[in-house]
């Protein structure tokens, strides 16, 4: 049985078009929160849990304390453009990532359905989890240099020692100073993070969206609110998945900054241990709030635009056949 995401009347290429469109639209909506999340992730102060009456204080300077304060600070120091640093490579990333991801998901699902058609060995949820996991890995590997460029741009501040002015200049500078491997720093923790994240995202979205679909079929909910139902399904699946895998996202961002001044090169496991040792376990969730504030609307918009674009393509095909 196909998942809610795919459709038997649409090819992998057509789903890739739907995904790319959804990726571009969602990126425009969440760009400022993405910059805030990255700035907070790259701060190296120690974060404490506070259970007693006395609150442990860290004497190291902390520039970005929370989401609202960080937004105000960036606006004051860098203007509105500061909230969209790295937006161009990020647009490339979201366009190409979403297109590759939905294309791969469709291809994997078709092959898995053919293999398991008679055997019926795998439960449907496991199929959606596996297809989402592998599709995410494929898209991450294919588009990772754009993700790294987005991080480098978003992390740069005015007057910094190394400031990238254009995507082309940044690519030349990274290749000259760090080599080809410089474009793939942090890829391993990205893969580790994206496997459970995309697996959980697609499988949970399928469950939520099909739940709404069943309620529409039973006329408990109105069919005209389908876009809203798709948005809610996307938001809930994104919030759940991101919370589970967030520590790996933080480690990935730290590793992506290797090769920049004052950032020592290390493995992802060493980086994870160092963050816990020097900054505390809670620091693995630095930037979680802006990340969740971002990921909820981002996935809501992504899946809603994806489903609406899919419906438009199906409608055009129906008219063409008349």
Quick recap of the structure?
The protein contains 9 helices and no strands. The protein has helices spanning 12-41, 67-78, 87-116, 124-155, 167-178, 187-217, 226-256, 268-279, 288-321.
Assign the structural class, choosing from mainly alpha, mainly beta, alpha/beta, alpha+beta, or little secondary structure.
mainly alpha
| Parts with pLDDT < 50 across at least 5 consecutive residues | 49-57
DSSP strand tally = 0
Order of helices and strands: HHHHHHHHH
Largest sheet: none
Describe it.
With 322 residues, this protein is mainly alpha-helical. The chain is built from nine helices and no strands. The two termini are 28 Å apart. The model is unreliable at 49-57 (pLDDT under 50).
């Amino acid at each position: 049985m196909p998942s809610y995401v795919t459709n038997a009347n649409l090819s992998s290429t057509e789903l890739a078009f739907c995904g790319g469109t959804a990726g571009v639209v969602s990126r425009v909506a969440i760009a400022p929160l993405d910059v805030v999340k990255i700035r907070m992730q790259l701060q190296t102060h120690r974060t404490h849990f506070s259970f007693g009456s006395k609150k442990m204080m860290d004497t190291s300077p902390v520039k970005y304390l929370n989401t609202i304060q960080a937004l105000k600070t960036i606006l004051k120091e860098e203007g509105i453009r500061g909230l969209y640093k790295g937006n161009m490579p990020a647009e490339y990333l979201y366009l190409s990532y979403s297109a590759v991801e939905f294309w791969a998901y469709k291809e994997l699902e078709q092959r898995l359905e053919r293999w398991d058609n008679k055997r019926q060995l795998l439960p449907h949820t496991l199929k959606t989890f596996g297809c989402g996991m592998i599709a995410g890995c494929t898209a991450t590997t294919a588009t990772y240099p754009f993700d790294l460029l987005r991080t480098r741009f978003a992390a740069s501040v005015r007057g910094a020692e190394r400031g990238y002015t254009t995507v082309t200049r940044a690519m030349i500078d990274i290749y000259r100073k760090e080599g080809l491997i410089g474009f793939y720093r942090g890829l391993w923790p990205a893969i580790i993070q994206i496997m459970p994240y995309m697996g959980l995202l697609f499988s949970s979205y399928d469950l939520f969206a099909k739940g709404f679909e069943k309620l529409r079929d039973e006329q408990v909910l109105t069919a005209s609110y389908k876009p809203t139902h798709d948005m809610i399904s996307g938001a809930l699946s994104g919030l759940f998945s991101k919370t589970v895998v967030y520590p790996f996202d933080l480690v990935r961002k730290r590793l992506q900054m290797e090769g920049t001044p004052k950032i020592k090169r290390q493995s992802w496991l060493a980086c994870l241990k160092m963050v816990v040792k020097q900054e505390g376990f809670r620091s693995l969730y630095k930037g979680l709030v802006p990340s969740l504030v971002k990921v909820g609307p981002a996935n809501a918009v992504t899946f809603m635009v994806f489903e609406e674009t899919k419906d438009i393509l199906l409608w055009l095909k129906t008219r063409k056949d008349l």
